[in-house]
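task queued by scheduler; priority normal; single chain, no ligands, no partner chains; default sampling; output format set to C-alpha cells
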Amino acid sequence: MFKLKTITAKLNMILVITVVLVLSTTTLITYQEYSIKAQKQLDNELLRIMQRLELISPTIIWNLQINLLKDIIKTEALNESIDAIIVKDIDNTIIASTIISKINTNRTNEIIKSEIFFETEKIAEIIIYFNTNKIEIIKNDIIKNFMLKVSISLFLLLFIISYFVNKFIIHNIRILKNNIKDVSTSKRFDNRIEINTNDEIQFLAEEFNKMKDNLDKSWKELNSLNSTLENRVNDEVIKNTEIQKQLFRSEKMVAMGEMIGNIAHQWRQPLSVISTSVTSMVIQKELDVLDDESFKKICTSINTNTQYLSKTIDDFKNFIKGDREKSVFELKDNIDGFLNIIKSSATQNNVNIITNIQNYTKICGYENELTQCIINIYNNAKDAFIENNLENRMLFIDVKRSKNNIKIILQDNAGGIDDTIISKIFEPYFTTKHQSQGTGLGLHMTYNLIVEGMNGNIEAINKEFVYEKQTYKGACFIITLAVR
C-alpha cells in the first residue's frame, strides 16, 4: 500500500486532490449550466416550428392543399434536431409526413403534439418527433474544451504553488529534520540552523537552537555526573546488600534462638532417661544385683536416647550451617528434620502436624534454606493460632509430584490472611505484628530463598477444605520446585 512518509509527498498530494476537486466541481457546474441552456434553446426552436405550423396548416388542410402542406413540413424538418413531422386527420389517417430518420414511437419524452382547428372545428393533429443529439454534442464539446482549459490552468497553478511550497517551506523543514537527526544520532550541538523567513519556521529554528544550547549544557553536566555516578551506585548497592545480609542474619538468629529453646526442651526427657539409667546401673552394681540382661537393657536405652540427641544435633547443625552449596537431597528427610526441630514448639503450642509425603522424592537445591522457609511458614501459622485463640490447631504438609515439578503445600486452619493484604505478604518489612514481635522479613526471605535461590515459585492463597467431615479455612502456601 502506498504510504505518505514525507511532508513533501503529503503537501503535493493535498494540492493534487484540491486541483482535482476544483476541476471536477467546476466542470460539473458548467456542464449542468450549458446543458440547461442547450435544452432551452431546443425547446424554443421546436416551439417556434409548431407555432408556424399551427398558423399556416388550418387553411391549407381545409382547402386540401396537401402538396403545399408537404412542402411546408419538409422545409421545417430541415432542422437537424427533427426526426419526423406527421400530420393526421381526425380519423388518425396520415395527411402528410416527412420522416428524416427512423423514429421510436415509444419515446414519448421526445415528441410534441398540437391539435389543428379551423374556426372552432378540430380538423387535424401535428406530431413532431425530435432528438437530443445536438444537445449531447454541445455537452461533449463543452466538457472537452472546458476541461482542457481548466486542466492546463489548474495544473500550471499546481506547479507554481508546489514550487514555492517546496522552496520556502519544505526546504527549510528538511534543514530542521537533518539538524534534529544530527542531534539525536551523533549528539552534535554545534551545528546552528540559519533560516531567515520571518515566519513560524524561523521561530521553530530559533527555538531549536536554544533547545540545543540547553541540551549541550545538560549533556555536559550529565557526563560529569555519570563519571561519578557508577561508583556512588556501586557503593550504595554494597551498603544495601550488607544491610540485607545483616537483616537476614538477624531473622535467622531469631529463628535459631527459638530453635535452641525448642532443642533444650526436647533434650530434657532423653537426658533424664540417660541420667536415670546410669544411676540405676550404679545402684544395681553396688548392690551386686546387676545381671547381664539388665546391663544390656540399660545400655540399649542409653544408646537409643543418645542417638536421638545426636540426630537432633545433626538437624540443628544442618539448619544453622552457613555454606550455600546446592545438593541433591531427599525431600522427606528434609521435612523429617524440620519436624524434629519444631517438635517441642508444636507440642508446647498444641499444633497437630499432618504430613503426606512419599519417599524417593529428590530435589536439587539448598537443603537448610528450604528448612528455613518451612519454619517461617510454620511460625506464621503458629502465631495465627495463638492470635485467634484456636483450640483445634492443624498444619497439613502435602507433597505432590508431577512429571516436571514438585509442589510442597502447607495448609493451616487458622482462618486465612486478610484479603486486603495477602498480595503484600512477600514484600520486605511488611508485617501485621508489633515491631517487637516481627521484622517483616520472614516471608520476604522465604520468597527470595525459593524464587531466587532455588529457581522455584511460592504463592499464598486463602482456601477452604474439609477434614474429618469438618470444614475449615486457612492460609495455603504452595512451594513449586523443579524435579531432580
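post-processing summary
- The helical segments are 7-62, 66-76, 133-186, 200-286, 292-320, 331-348, 367-388, 442-453.
- Residues 200-286 form the longest helix (87 residues).
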